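Propose amino acids for all 403 sites.
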C-alpha cells in the first residue's frame, strides 16, 4: 500500500463531466489499495473570473479581501469532487487549506507555506477516507485566508506529499507530460519520459507553464518524485526527479518567454561601483533582474543593459530616471518587444559546442541576438519578439528533428 497525492488542475475539474472523470481516477487508485490525498484547483477559469468580478467592484481591493475571494474557487471544486466520489460509494471528506493544516506567511496573494500540520490529514486517512484538499490556500497567523500565488495548487500538492512522506505525487493537467517545446506551437515536440528537477525548474521559470516553479523547488528539496500527466488520456506522463548522472539528456527543451523587457542605461562613467549602485537600487525595490550585459568601456563611458519582467518595466524606468544624474548616464532606453528563448539541458555541462549549434540555428533563420546569458544547464538569448516563434522552431529542429 502506498500513499499517493494526486493534484488536478483547473481544466481537469472544469465541469461535471470532468469532475466525474477525476472521481474515477481517484477511486481507481484507492481501489488498488492506496491511500489517496487529492488536491484541486478552481474549476476552469474561475480564478480569472473572480479577478474580473473584483475589478468591477473596486479597482484597488485590499489583498486580504482578494484572497478571501480567490480562495473560494478551490472550495467549490473540492466540495463538488467530494460529492462525485461520494456518489460512487467511496468514503471521502473535503478540507479547506486551514483544515488540512496549511500555515502560511502573511503576504496575501503570494503567501509562503510555513508548515503543514498533518494531524487532520492523518486522522482522515486512518478512517480510510479519500481526502480532497483545496489547493492554492492556507491560513496566516491572524487566522485569515491566504493564497499562494497564481498556479499555487501544485505547490500545495507537493507540500502535502513532502510532509506526509507520500510515495508519489501526480500532477494531472491538460498536457500529458513535459515536452521538448510547447506542443501547441511545435507539432514535432517530443514528450520526455524523465526530466531532472533542475531542468524542470529552468523550464518552469522560462514559462513552459507545466508546473509552478515553487512546487519544483520544494520537490527537489524534499526529494519528492513528481509525475506530470493528463487526466484525459490516462497515459504515462513525465517523471520529474533527481538527475541521473549516467544518462543526462544533452538538451531537454526549448522555451520562450515573452513576459520580458530590456532596459539600457547608456553612457555611464566607466568606473567601479556603477553596477552595484544600479542593481542594489533595483533589488531594494524588489525588482528582479535577469540577463545583464555590460559593454566594454570606450572613451571613458560604458552601457549597461538588463532585462526585467514586463510588468516591472515602467516602475524600473521611473526609478532609474530619478537617478540618471547620480549615475551620470546620458540616457535610458527600453524595449518590451523582446523575447527570451532558452535551451535547457543537464548534459550541456560536459558538452562543448551546444551554444554554437544554437546560434547557428538562429543564424540560418536570420535571427539577430541582442543579449546572451548562460549557466551550466541553460543558454538564453534575447531577441526581437517578432522573431521568437521562428527561433524556437529553428532551435527545436536543430536539436530534436535531425539525427
Ligand atoms: N486557481 C489558482 C489559479 O488559477 C491556483 C491554481 O490553479 O493552481 O492560479
Ligand atoms: Mg487555475
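Proposal:
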Amino acid at each position: 500500500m502506498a500513499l499517493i497525492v494526486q493534484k488536478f488542475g483547473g481544466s481537469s475539474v472544469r465541469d461535471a463531466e470532468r469532475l466525474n472523470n477525476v472521481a474515477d481516477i481517484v477511486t481507481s487508485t484507492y481501489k488498488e489499495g492506496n491511500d489517496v490525498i487529492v488536491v484541486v484547483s478552481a474549476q476552469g477559469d474561475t480564478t480569472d473570473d473572480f479577478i474580473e468580478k473584483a475589478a468591477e467592484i473596486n479597482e484597488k481591493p485590499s489583498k486580504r479581501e482578494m484572497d478571501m475571494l480567490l480562495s473560494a474557487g478551490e472550495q467549490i471544486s473540492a466540495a463538488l469532487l467530494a460529492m462525485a466520489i461520494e456518489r460512487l460509494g467511496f468514503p471521502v471528506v473535503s478540507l479547506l487549506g486551514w483544515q488540512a493544516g496549511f500555515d502560511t506567511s502573511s503576504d496575501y496573494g503570494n503567501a509562503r507555506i510555513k508548515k503543514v500540520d498533518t494531524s487532520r490529514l492523518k486522522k482522515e486517512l486512518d478512517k480510510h477516507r479519500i481526502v480532497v484538499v483545496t489547493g492554492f490556500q492556507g491560513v496566516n497567523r491572524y487566522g485569515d485566508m491566504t493564497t499562494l500565488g497564481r498556479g499555487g495548487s501544485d505547490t500545495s500538492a507537493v507540500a502535502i506529499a513532502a510532509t506526509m512522506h507520500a510515495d508519489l505525487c501526480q500532477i494531472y493537467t491538460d498536457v500529458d507530460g513535459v515536452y521538448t517545446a510547447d506542443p501547441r506551437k511545435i507539432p514535432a515536440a517530443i514528450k520526455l519520459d524523465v526530466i531532472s528537477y533542475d531542468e524542470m525548474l529552468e523550464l518552469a521559470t522560462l514559462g513552459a507553464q507545466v508546473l509552478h516553479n515553487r512546487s519544483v523547488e520544494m520537490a527537489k528539496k524534499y526529494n519528492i518524485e513528481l509525475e506530470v500527466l493528463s487526466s484525459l488520456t490516462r497515459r504515462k506522463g513525465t517523471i520529474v526527479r533527481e538527475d541521473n548522472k549516467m544518462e543526462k539528456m544533452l538538451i531537454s527543451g526549448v522555451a520562450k518567454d515573452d513576459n520580458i523587457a530590456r532596459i539600457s542605461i547608456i553612457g555611464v562613467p566607466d568606473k567601479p561601483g556603477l553596477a552595484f549602485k544600479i542593481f542594489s537600487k533595483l533589488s531594494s525595490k524588489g525588482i528582479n533582474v535577469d540577463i545583464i550585459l555590460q559593454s566594454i568601456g570606450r572613451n571613458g563611458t560604458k552601457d549597461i543593459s538588463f532585462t526585467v519582467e514586463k510588468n516591472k518595466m515602467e516602475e524600473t524606468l521611473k526609478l532609474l530616471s530619478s537617478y540618471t544624474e547620480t549615475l551620470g548616464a546620458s540616457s535610458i532606453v527600453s524595449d518590451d518587444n523582446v523575447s527570451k528563448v532558452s535551451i535547457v539541458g543537464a548534459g550541456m555541462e560536459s558538452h562543448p559546442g551546444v551554444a554554437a549549434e544554437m546560434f547557428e540555428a538562429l543564424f540560418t533563420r536570420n535571427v539577430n541576438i541582442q543579449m546572451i546569458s548562460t549557466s551550466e544547464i541553460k543558454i538564453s538569448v534575447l531577441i526581437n519578439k517578432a522573431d521568437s516563434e521562428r527561433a524556437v522552431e529553428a532551435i527545436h529542429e536543430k536539436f530534436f528533428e535531425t539525427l
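The chain has two domains: 3-244, 267-335. Residues 10, 41-42, 47 surround magnesium ion (ligand 2) (CB under 6 Å).
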